[in-house]
Amino acid sequence: MARRGAMARRGDELMEFSGSISTLEELHALSLMVHEVASDWGISEKVLFEVSLIVEEFCSNSVKYGGIPVGVGIKLADSVITIMITDSGKPFDPTEVAVPDVTLPLEERKAGGLGIHFVNHFADTIVYSRENGRNILKIEKKI
Amino acid sequence: MLINTSQKENLQIVSIEGRLDSLTAPELELWIRDNLASPEFDVVMDFSNLDYISSAGLRVMLNLSKAAARYSRKFSVCQAQDHIREVFEISGFDSFIPLCDSLDDVLAL
Prior knowledge:
The complex is a heterodimer.
Chain A: E1 2-9, E2 14-21, H1 24-40, H2 45-66, E3 70-77, E4 80-87, H3 114-122, E5 125-131, E6 134-142
Antiparallel strand pairs in A: 1-2, 2-3, 3-4, 4-6, 5-6
Chain B: E1 2-8, E2 11-20, H1 25-35, E3 42-46, E4 50-53, H2 55-70, E5 75-78, H3 82-90, E6 99-100, H4 103-107
């Protein structure tokens, strides 16, 4: 897994981290690294969990089915965490995925769509765009 | 992720330690296939040492809930940390998977 440094300028409150992953093992390792880096930034366990979940839910499909490298960038500035997830796969907008009906009884429940449902709950804004042959997801969360 | 199991009063306790994510969930699924395919007892997942769960882990819980129901066994989760509990609540899974604070509560279900 390529990791392009964690740059922290505490004075400006700008802290950045980026990495690139292409397997589930690398996703798992990235999640652990995000946890380590972000906890150095003084982020609470609860928010760390939510950030890790957001990254995993958006990356796992691309990694499992695409096998293409996914770029992950995380920035903290002015009490907003911004997560950028990019890949050069086929156009795919995860914000269009159907949200599950969480009121269905057990027999009718399916597992699909749970990931996006969690991200909708934990993120403040999610914006998808397609530029220069890349899928770009920008997620923001106020902390 | 570590999986341990023990039995107590006709209850099969499965403890999961660490992270249940897209990488580790298939391992738990295999373990369940090998150990809980036709559950003889009611099953409880002890999540006191579970730090993280994602939709991949929830999928395993859903499948296990359905399997338990098919065999008329109770299935519950015990001692989940707050952020894990929240994931069950957001997904509506708490409507069919009781989230208990202790084994005594599980035994009283």
